[in-house]
Amino acid sequence: MTVAPCLAKPTTFFQLLDQTPGLDGRDNRGKKHSIALVLTGLTLALCCGRDGKLSSLHRHMVNHSQPLCQATNMTHHKAISRAQLPLLLAKVNGVLFAQLLFGWFGLILDADSKRWFALDGKELRGSIQPGHTRGEACVSVLTHDSEAIVGQAYYSGSKESEKPVVRQLLNDKGLYNQKITLDALHLNPLTVNAIEGAGGIYIVGIKANQALLYRYCICRSVLIQATFERTDAVKRGHGRLEQRSYQCFSLHPTSLAPRWHAAGLATLIRVVRNRQGLSGGAPSQEVNYFVSNSQPTTQPEADELFDALRHHWRIEVMHHRRDVTLAEDRLRTESQAVSRLMSSLRTMVINLLGRKKPKNMVAQLEDFADKFLTLIQFMNQELVL
Question: Which residues form the Transposase IS4-like domain (predicted)?
Fold first, then answer.
């Protein structure tokens, strides 16, 4: 009887990829390239700012294949060809890769010590085909404090809606009992009822498409006195001066439509942003409304809600980094599998760089590009290699 060899427990993410069955969907006949080596090579190329074109990423993999193979003890492997690269990527089990990624670099949640998370979706514009207006979309979960991406899910923007994807992601990640910030798209009874029922806290934007509730909230903010308020100091940035003011008002659930009775709506938050361009011009003002099932009884509790609204925009900063720093939208592909897999690899890069906390992410990518061995050392420290 032949006994199958027992693989040692993986101590690096590379070893985990190399030893996980089911990650590689290719036929076993004629395999030449290691899935783990290719995915790691792409990750290093992304860390060097080579995103935007698959050909650019491939050239980086070829030019730096020798030090990578030495670092992974796979010196007998040759770099994959440009023609084979998208074919191989399309065979990777993207769902399993994401599970491995967030399992290895994930965090442990504590129901008694809740954390704030932001959820939002982003369209992968490089996946939009000619003649179409929508493509693949990615929903991310971001922690407010560390700005780490702790979960993702994908859907086809031309066929599916973001709302059920968000609910499924909250369920899969066990986040219903945490503290969640969402944009106005997700002010939906199915979503907020589930968070309220699980003992979680939510803050969700509200806009005019919720006509009755929106008018009720505006009237509430005009007719009654705010329970708590705060005005932040004037901040300078992006060519303007900006000052934010916050007010929160109590809500009476019995005054709302029956569809909201199980949502636990307790607080209305009004945010006013006054802006003045540094080059002159007329000042502008923007007013936004949010609702929450949290009912603050002290100023610090109200400040926590105000801060959570401010920190929700960190997910937009993350999307900006994907678009501008990593050039995500410029990488065009007709393959759904490749588009989603590359998005997961960028998530890995953003989380890794977030641990390093560079002052300037672009400068860090350029530094890695100039000093590839420094990048190898960093990946060893982070247990990627």
Answer: 119-352
